Every structure is written in C-alpha cells, then in structure tokens.
Amino acid sequence: MNGTPSDAEDVRSLLSVTSVNPTPDTLTKLVKRLRALTLTLLPVEADIESISEPTSRIITPQVISAYKAAAGDFTEALPYCLLRARAEFIWDANHNPADYGENRGRAIACEVLARRIVHLAEPSRVKDIMAKRYQHRQIDGDESEMSSALEMAIDQHCTIFLSSSEAQEVVNALWTGDLIQKNNENHDIDYVVYADTREHSFWGHFDPSRLSVPRYQNIFRITVWLFFLVVYSRAVREPLERLNDAHRVLDGWELVLYVMALSFTVEDLHKLYILLRFVTWRAFSFWNAVAFVTDTLLISAFILRVISLIAEGEKESVMRLRSFQSNLFNRMKLVTIFDGYKYIGTMQICVARMLKESGIFFALLSVLAVGFAQGLYALDAADGSTEPPSTHYFSAPNPRFLKTKRLTLISRAPDYGKFAASPTGLMLYYLWNAVTAIILLNVLISLFSSAYSDVIEDAEAQYLAFFASKTVGMIRAPDSYVYPAPFNLIEAFLVAPLEFLPFIRLKEKTYAKLNRYVMGFIFILPLTLIAFVESTFDRRKHTWMENWFRGNDEGSEDLPENRDPVVDDPNCQGLEISKIPFEELIKVFPNTVQSTEATILKEIGTVKQQLQELSQKIDRLQQS
C-alpha cells in the first residue's frame, strides 16, 4: 500500500504487533533508516521549543504515522531505536561543532517521537515496550549490552521521554515492586509482574527477594543511616576523653562506626563494579564520585585510628586527632539518602550541576595560580638568589601559597604588605587579585546562576528523570540476593565465597536455598512487615482506603455521566444541568491538538476543497 497509513490504521498496527526478538543487525538497520528519515525531516537547524512543544508544527500526527510505518513489523522496538538514533545524533553534535544546532534538534526530535509513539500504545503493552531489552551493533562491530528503552533514556538523561506518564508508570511499578526483574542466562534481565509469580497470601509475600524492591531498599537505607548518625555522634565524643587510659583502645561505638563504614565502602565498590561491567560508564554519576570520596575518608580515618593505637607520645594524640578530623565529611552522603523526596532530590540536582560547573572555575584558577606564582618566583630569582621557603610563599618547594591564597581569594582578604618592597611584584600581585577576585569569581557566580536556572526552569522533568535513574539503578544489576548494608559484609565474607571458591562451591539450587534461609533469618522483622502490608493492604482490593486517605480526583474521570449529568434531586423537579449537550458545547472550542500553522493549513484546505466543488457544480450547470 502506497503512502502512510491513517492514524486509526497505524494505531491498530501498533497494538496488534506481538513481541519479537530481532537480532542486533536488524535493529541497526532500523536505526539507520530512522536516522535517514530524521535527516530528511530536519535538513536545517530548527528551534528546540518548536520541536518539543505538544502542538509542534514539525512533529505532526502525519510525521508520527510515517515513523511508525517506517518500522514495519518491528514497531515495538521503535522507541528503543529512536533513542539509539538520538544517542548517535548527540555524538555527532559533540564531535562536529559546526552542525551542533542541527544535530541537537534531530536528537530532540527522535526523543519526542519516542515519547509520542509510546503514548499511542495500548496501556497493557506499555510495560513491554518500555522494559523489553534489545541489542544493536556498535560502530566497532561488537554487539552492545542488553538494554531497554527505559534504560537507554536514563543513560542519556532524556528528560522529555522520562517525564511522560507512560515512563513514570513503569518507573513507579518498579519502585513499588509491582514489576520485578527475572534473571536469565548470560546476565540478562526480564521484567515480569510480581502478582503473576506469587499467590496473594502472607507466606506468598514472605519472600527475601522483596528486599530488592527500590522502595524497601530506600526505607531500609534511611533507617540504617539514621542509626549510623547516632553511632557517629557517640563515637566523636571519644576525643574529649582521650586522656583517659580506658579510651586508648577502640571502644564499642568506634567498632560499630568502622564496621558500618566498611560495609558502605563494600556496597559502593560493588555498585561501581556492576556499573562498569553490566551497564555503562555513562551511568556513573557525580554522586558516585562523592560516595567514593566519603568512603575514602572513612577508611583513612580508620587507618589513622589504628596508627594512633600503636603510636606513642605526641604522635598518638596527633594521629587520633587526624582520624576524627577525616570523619567530618561523611554527612555529605545524607543528601543522597533522602533524595527520594522531591524537594531534597531537586536540591541534589542543583548542587550536583553547580559543582560540575565549578570545575571550569577551578581549572582556570589553577592555571592562573601557577602562572602568577612562576612570575613572582622569577622576580625573586632575578638577583641571583631566592628567599627560603619559610619566608617566601612563592618559592617552588612550598605549596602553601596556592592553598592559602585560594582561601584568601574567597574571603577577599589579600595580604599586600608581603610585596611592598617590590613595586613590580606588588603590581603583579594586584593584577592577580583583580583577575581572581573580580573576573573569575563573577565567572563562578554566573556559572552557578546558569546551572540553577536550568534546573529550576524544568524542575519537574529533571526530578522525574532523576527519580527514574535512582529507581532503575537500584535493580539494574543482575543480583538475585540483595543484602543491604551493613549486612552485605555477611554476604561478602561468609555467603558469597560458597558460590565462587573451589572445593566449597555449592550447587546453584543449594546456594539459592542457603541465601533464602540466611536472609529469612537476618531480615525476619522487615520481611514480616513487608509480607503483612502487601498481603493485607492490596491496592487492587482496598482502593476505597487509598481514596479515603488521598482523595478521589473525580474531575480527572472523563465518563459519559460526567459529560451530561442527570439531575435526580427531588428539590429540583424539572430542572436540568445538561440543557445543551456536551457535544454541542465543545463545537466552539479551538483545536488545541494542532499548531496554529496546522490549523490554518487545514482551514485553507477545506476552503480549497469547497471552491473546487463549487467550480465543478458551475461547470456542470454551464454544460447543461
């Protein structure tokens, strides 16, 4: 059949497609075809807002129908392929600055098309379209890692796609555990409905695998960190009693503190390993780096504390002091613990974006600092001798200048008297402070302002994309048995060796049974609470309770009885609300689905058709 199908035919085609498993070569061919279509659709640069707006004159219903027709029998894989095409256009934009605007617009168009196509899918097929995993052929000829449309959108931070109601429906199902992962061979993962795998009873829900549900992981993690803060608050009191001989050894609070620190470090290292092996380095975020820094400080604090135990005299006190000073930054991770709440999550996004932008500032500051330090050192060495490091901060062997002067830069407290004896050095130092305190600091402020405004202007979409990344990141790794910290040490040192080490390696079924018994014993309290809540408060059977607590938004229900309500009030006999039918009322409404240009063209086409019919009637009258 020539041409593109009608909207109704195309929707039926999308809904009737069954799940298929195309090879990477097949999907690569589809990606290339979609790229060719997008290059034809946008041969020149287009405004980003005109592409992404709901009534876009570029992404019209006819364009969406053409893209769906271009996928043939592989419509279910179309969102995945469009997002893959988006990644390639972003790569082209970053490596070809001359065509950055054009390729950026094409990437946004692919993302918008993927969102619109998923929106047209039948609700029962949305989870399969979003969560089904595919592979494609990479540029070097290797096959890519298995990934779904949802995971690919998360890796690329596709805020337009991830902020859609369909994407959030799948994310919320993963968050609450209604949709769970099923581990297959070769570290592959499928997502299945949890209700289809268990009977709805207390013992059916008493399942150690429920600890892997992101919502329960988040609650458990918050509880553990609150306990960790209590332990830390008690442990930091130890330096106050450092003169007491009873506290020259590790006390109970310190032991708990460092055991928990070790468990957090093992957990973060395991996440890093999983990201690099099974996912992609693009999933490595700024807060993974923060976690690495805080873990390093905790381990350093433990090492210094051990050194203080074996040291004597003044060194013992110094090492003990340094140990507790290294613990001061562990509260930075609190931002990542409560990021499931919208306000804190949005704040975290702002902070991360600002700190990333500050990298430009500190890079420029470091280059300038080295340059000015070298210039002042040259002035000092011009007479054939230099001052010793103890009296001259610009001497090469003394690195204190860069550290001290960066702090005085921020505090606006430069020391000009240090260079009063040298007019040239004083002028150079004036220039240094002018460049750093006036120019670079204003650059830093503008970078912070730009980063903050970028996040706040699109805060809803940014947070929804962040929440999707957080949710999928908790379950993305093929881990069948999740031991939350600090109990992951039991798995690492007592259980996991029985899976890998020779001579004591257990069979797969025996190892699975051992994990169920161990987890059932350790986590009997949280598992009991989870099973009780899930088996008692089934949302499908107790929707009245949810509506009672949250309220039922009846205005969102577009039902026939809401359109033309009937008055059955005995006090209002003969009176009606629907004197004018609903269909008659909406005839005067403007068409908000189409853009202004599309509406005008449609009206012009209608007038043109009427004129053509009128002309034909006039010709027939003249002939008769």
Automatic annotation (TrEMBL):
Transmembrane segments: 286-311, 360-379, 429-448, 514-533
Domain YVC1 N-terminal linker helical: from-to ranges: 28-206
Keywords, comma-separated and alphabetical: Membrane, Transmembrane, Transmembrane helix
Key word Transmembrane present: yes
InterPro entries associated with the record: LHD_YVC1 (IPR056337), TRP_calcium_channel (IPR052971)
Taxonomic superkingdom: Eukaryota
Name of protein: YVC1 N-terminal linker helical domain-containing protein
Organism: Psilocybe cubensis
Lineage of producing organism: Eukaryota, Fungi, Dikarya, Basidiomycota, Agaricomycotina
